[in-house]
Amino acid sequence: MVRAKTWILKKHFEGFPKQSDFELKVAELPPLKDGEVLLEAVFLSVDPYLRPYSKIKMKEGDKVIGSQVAKVLESKNPSYPVGSYIVAQSGWTTHFISDGKDLSLMPPSWPKNLSRSLALGTVGMPGLTAYFALSEICRLKPGEIIMINAAAGAVGTVAGQLAKLKGCKVVGCAGSEEKVAFLKKLGFDEVFNYKTVGSLAEALKKASPEGYDCYFDNVGGAFSTVVLNQMRKFGRIAVCGMISLYNDKEPQQGPYIQWPILMNQLCMEGFLVQRWENRKEEGLNALLKLVVEGKLKCPEHITEGFDNMPAAFMGMLKGENTGKAIVKA
Amino acid sequence: MVRAKTWILKKHFEGFPKQSDFELKVAELPPLKDGEVLLEAVFLSVDPYLRPYSKIKMKEGDKVIGSQVAKVLESKNPSYPVGSYIVAQSGWTTHFISDGKDLSLMPPSWPKNLSRSLALGTVGMPGLTAYFALSEICRLKPGEIIMINAAAGAVGTVAGQLAKLKGCKVVGCAGSEEKVAFLKKLGFDEVFNYKTVGSLAEALKKASPEGYDCYFDNVGGAFSTVVLNQMRKFGRIAVCGMISLYNDKEPQQGPYIQWPILMNQLCMEGFLVQRWENRKEEGLNALLKLVVEGKLKCPEHITEGFDNMPAAFMGMLKGENTGKAIVKA
Asked: How many domains in chain A?
């Protein structure tokens, strides 16, 4: 018998999530039936999307949603032999049984010296998000100027590096001096700490007096309004996230944005990475190739221990991570 | 000697424009030089864009900007024979001299029974705005559902009719019962008076319980925020105007719109019709053909007398017109 530990959403979040919103449960798993596999979590992902989707995807008492890299412990399904690794949207749990339909086998050719946790980050959903949004939403061209906020996050670090590889000027911002220094090492052209610059508008102007062709927005709200007013004609805004708004109890307000949208003929588009599900393999292959060639660095912020998942999630929402926030089971 | 009457911007608008912001001046025009033509206004256009562009395009003391249909009174330029008609961005003036560079000759084939004023409306800038925005920004497909506000205006009436011709469900709104009745006669599927519906959200829901694929936005601000929350997945928003915001002394505020933009993967794009300058002839030919075939009605609101231009402009901003607001000189 295998005992699975699972984090349950005990109470819907109100404002910023609290430890008491989560509850750890333990249950014994039944024996495998034909066609099933038993999986054990190796790395688990904590992602910002959990916050906005909490009420949409879960009710109180449900397992917390999320993806993980897991190892096959037992198998009655020839597609998933014992010892193989998979990626699955199986939620915050240490062990689970699957009939295989919702599993993605990691390629046997996965490089030995590459942590499998990257399948949750640069060579996974966040990497694909950056990859497709830059080409399909930002329609980024060599020589253009792009602004990326939450730039030290899982998506921002990939987006900034890909934009540099494309021959663009990349301006990033983050919330600590350490992150600023790290992003400069990653190759960002200009980086500032949004918490300590007196005026965001002036910091943006200083970083790129010519304005911005693209804006990769992970933050939304008041921050975005300032950036929109510095976009160039025909600028594109990829609305990837809105971490400044996720924890609102009352919706925040600001000036309507039709002025800059109209006067500079801007195009602002929201997207979810699932839109490109049919091109997933293309994206993952391209990202893995860049990682193997050393052209794409993969910063990670690893928290040890499954029991610390709520803390890792809340820490990520507070910006404690540089790069992808991962929990090692 | 010809005496030209000209409306001058005496004082920059503050809030809603006032009669005292304008001043009428009279001046004698010099004799023509070689290559020049003398023109007399026949129809003049008053358009919403004058309000947002007033500070950008004019300083106090300048001639008020705007387009007109004019007739050639005298000519020392063989391209513009006496008696021919042109369209020009010549401002609010009864007579002017041109070297021809800024004139567009109206086709000699212009149908006899068609008022030349249409070259300022359905077969002019407002018509082109609707024509290109529907295809290029809304990317409207047959069977889709589109919401158009300020639907009884110069652009809205064309946009709604073109969307019907494309096989779409068209929901419009306007600010009087007369306009509502008129739009229903034009073929709009659902129309409501935004001034008398208790709740805009409920009126939109009732008109299209399935939501909206496209939103042709002439209004902006609070109105738009309500519509955005009823857009369907992958909806497109064409930001054509923002008449609810033009007269702000302090910018109006409302909830940030990243939520609906992201969660429904909406695409919101601002545009100016000049973007399609290279396709102007294509657009005008298509619009003229539809008008001649009787497929496109061309409502106009005509004010008599050049001296009434400021009143016509202010009346249009208040929504007194159904269809294109025109001044007959």
From this structure: 2
